[in-house]
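Please check the following for our workbook:

***
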Amino acid sequence: MDIAKQFDTLWYQGASLAAVALITGAALAVAYQSAAPRIAEAQMRKTQAALAEVLPQGSFDNDLMADTVTIKDAAGREVTVYRARKAGAVTGVVFGMENKGYSGTIKLVMGVDLDGRLTGVRVTGHTETPGLGDKIELAKTPWVLGFNGKSLDDPAPALWAVKKDGGVFDQFAGATITPRAVVGAVKRGLELYTGNREAMIAAGAPRS
């Protein structure tokens, strides 16, 4: 039998491709499994940093990642609430919100103290237009710091909008949809806190 001709047959080519795909898939699976713990650890550190960034310095001494409660928002979606404690007493909470922006979903975390005032807001993910919508990032502009100290009643609910819509928050030239989405998400977050305050700050024991 001519070995060279055998290599040219369709069945051999198909079998070769299948073998290569199988080996490649197995190699990728092994690589992912070995990297998974490091990926999970990096993600946890990133989450911890984001949570701490929206809380006043020195306002907590507990492990935020281990002190959580789950509630449901108006749409029935589960929201994980991280509780900040100082000497065992709850001092505030942090949770995530999201809203549809110009080119995709904008995700953020927000800290709220016991009086319902914002201690910080940070955008954690988005696909908005570089140079325009990305001004919601603190690394680009200080715009997001404008939420600090605000509450659902300060400004009044009707003023929780960008200035173009009659509110008090600045919009960006050429990119009104993006800040509008962030303002809307933060307002809904404050409404969520107001409606679920007791459940969020209930003095339960942290997860072990």
